[in-house]
């Protein structure tokens, strides 16, 4: 393995992202397991199911859009603040994580699963406040002032 600082930084960014996705998966599995055991329902009828399906669709589109937009940044030689203001990154610095949260929430609403919805909220908070601060630090180190300016403009 090459010990070039660029490679180390890249590995760390991907490690942080992998750990954040793992939190979502583990929390989702815990929520599903608890819902099988305790069967606590939130909604008395199935009127919320269409809203859950809408969340699933929105989340899927958001994740695909974020991944496509993120890949486009790799082609840029000199990154400027404007390069970050594209696609869903105009609105949030964490569109993929937001999409995963909406997927989990949509599933929880469709399944009327209290613990899935609770685990969604908890996993989003853990990822937002633990892993994304590390992710922001790596990106600030990598892209410097361009990312720092972007971070000031897009707070969430």
Topology:
Elements: H1 5-38, H2 49-73, H3 81-84, H4 95-111, H5 114-143, H6 145-153
Helix pairs in contact: 1-4, 1-5, 2-4, 4-5, 5-6
Describe the structure.
The chain contains 6 helices and no strands. It starts with a helix and ends with a helix. With about 160 residues, it is mainly alpha-helical. It is elongated and about 55 Å long. Helix content is about 75%, strand content about 0%.
Q: What characteristics describe this protein?
A:
156 residues; mainly alpha; 6 helices; 0% strand; elongated; disordered N terminus
> What's the helical proportion of residues?
over 70%
Give the amount of beta strand, in percent: under 5%
Please identify the structural class as seen in this structure: mainly alpha
The low-confidence parts are: 1-9
How many DSSP E strands? 0
Query: Largest sheet, described in full?
Result: none
Straight-line distance between termini: 35 Å
Write the element-wise H/E pattern from the N-terminal end onward: HHHHHH
Assembly category: single chain
How many alpha or pi helices?
6
In short:
This protein is 76% helix and 0% strand. It is mostly helical. It starts with a helix and ends with a helix.
